Amino acid sequence: MKESLKTFKKYSQEVTESLQSIDSLKIDNLANKILIALKQSNKIIILGNGGSAANAIHIAGDYMKTFSLLGLKPRISTPFDNLCFLTAASNDVDYSESFKIYLDSVLEKSSIVIFLSGSGNSINLIKCCNSKIFNCLEEFESWSITAFEGGKISKLTDEFLHIPTRDMEVAEDMQLIIFHYIKQKLYLEIINSSDYQETSDSNKYYKRTILNEVS
């Protein structure tokens, strides 16, 4: 079937419609959980494939840098931090098992596990949720952030945040928007807390992002 030509206006409307329809209360709930994890140096583990994997790398690195400069000790990771492990596990066992092997080795109490997916049906993510440690370990929280109808993984995690779109690339755009928003929200909460000590390094982020909103 032939479709009409895509225009930037049409694409931006699809992103805007998704933004306006998403459950902002759930995003703020996730933000609060991440803030606790950052303050208590609990693990935050992000998993995804393809564009979601690229977003996981971006989010992990971005959060590590920003919140380390605020004096916190973030423990945020993704399997793609160690490509040697990921390729070896995929070669020796199977790619569909590699995330489960990774998660089994790093998951601990008080962790937050975040699955990023467009369809929510990636077999390697589903296998993580069906692993023994995932179902036996207590006192950790799992989130799935998926588009389309949510997919199988949305029913296997403690919390599910739905991105209301059927466009895979809009879904990936939304992943970054969500986590950029959370980062700015948490940054402000931390620097406005009574025990925060300002440094010149930590002030750079404010000047490059939030200052542009308030000036």
Automatic annotation (TrEMBL):
PANTHER family: SEDOHEPTULOSE 7-PHOSPHATE ISOMERASE / DNAA INITIATOR-ASSOCIATING FACTOR FOR REPLICATION INITIATION (PTHR30390), SUGAR ISOMERASE (SIS) (PTHR30390:SF8)
InterPro entries: GmhA/DiaA, SIS_dom, SIS_dom_sf, SIS_GmhA/DiaA_subfam
Membrane-spanning segments: none
Gene3D superfamilies cross-referenced by the UniProt entry: Glucose-6-phosphate isomerase like protein, domain 1
UniProt GO MF annotations: carbohydrate derivative binding; isomerase activity
Keywords carried by this UniProt record: Isomerase
Keyword Isomerase annotated: yes
Enzyme class per UniProt: isomerase
Any one biological process term the GO annotation gives: carbohydrate derivative metabolic process
Residues annotated as domain SIS: 34-192
Organism domain of life: Bacteria
Classification lineage: Bacteria, Bacillati, Cyanobacteriota, Cyanophyceae, Synechococcales
EC code: 5.3.1.-
Protein name: Phosphoheptose isomerase
